[in-house]
Amino acid sequence: MGVHLSTAPEPLVDDTVADSGRVATPLAPTDRVLLAYVALVSVVAMLRAPTQPGCRWLLVAHALILTLVWLVRRPGLGVVGRALREAYPLLLLPGLYAALDVLNGAGQVVAHDELVQRWELALFGGQPSRAWWRAAPSPFWSTVFHGAYFAYYLIVPLPVAYFALRGELAAVRRTVFAVVATFVVCYLWFVFFPVAGPYYAFPRPDQAVLDNPMARLVYATLATGSSYGAAFPSSHVAATVACAAAAWMGSRRLGLALVVPTALLALGVVYCQMHYAVDAAAGLVVAAVVLWTTRLLERRGGAFAGD
Q: Taking a C-beta distance cutoff of 8 angstroms, is the pair 33, 41 a contact?
């Protein structure tokens, strides 16, 4: 009887060896996306620093992000450290969003709303974000759509929490990558092609549309911090669609549960006059491209494989 010798190469590094204290873990796809974003935006911050002094502080923040990435990739992190390694990209997103206001000078840069409104007119024959609620003012639908809009803050972290509680590491990594990559693409658009959006460009909807608890909750939330120029493409639509699709990849049941709120949100951003219709359409395109990239990475190299 002969002896079979396997010719399959052994992996150079795995998390078991890495966390044993001998070898650092390699950069994950999400790390690479974040580092590329930080590098590009750092160049923009340096160029804009002479007229927008706050950009200097962004460079300090970016240096701290680089330090954080290095720290979470060190070996011997323990349970808490490994959890932070998976979650830290999501924790950085609010700060990266707030930084857009600094990069765009809190409204000092030229917004491209007139161009987007011309696209809107060419594609839809008017301005749906201004005309829809006027043509069909409804306290009921206003409540539903504003509620769906606010649900964004719950939908985005939900699949990650769900898969983490189930110990499905590959699904966590896939979802985090899809969400972070989607936001990064949107944020780059906001930096180089700022659009204020109908929230700023048009008068607010009538009180009859806004006089409901969900509308008041949305406006109170936006009042706490909303970055100027962050309308095209709609990161609300893009991230929610990407998150729901990533949820579907890991759990059909969870994906189906997110279909209705995701669809309502995509419509609601227009009815509630938060985004132009082309913003929402562009958000769908961004989500589709990121999801295609996510699938490609997973199929070619098992980029999100769990331990």
A: no
Given phi > 0 = left and psi -120 to 50 = alpha, else beta, which region is 4?
beta
Backbone dihedral region for residue 106 (phi beyond 0: left; psi -120 to 50: alpha; all else: beta): left
Residues whose CB is less than 8 angstroms from the CB of residue 283 and which lie 6 or more positions away in sequence, other chains included: 186, 233, 234, 235, 236, 237, 238, 241, 266, 275
Q: What is the Cα–Cα distance from 268 to 129, expressed in whole angstroms?
A: 10
Distance (Å, whole) CA 14 – CA 74: 13
CA distance 151 to 90: 17
What tokens does 248 get?
A: 């579907």
Q: What is the pLDDT of residues 263-275, one digit of tens each?
A: 999 999 999 999 9
CB-based contact 229:273 (threshold 8 Å): no
**3 state DSSP class of 230:** strand
User: How confident is the model over 13-38, as pLDDT tens digits?
Assistant: 444 444 544 566 888 999 999 999 99
- Please tell me the chain's helix, strand, coil percentages from 3-state DSSP, rounded to the nearest 5: 70, 0, 30
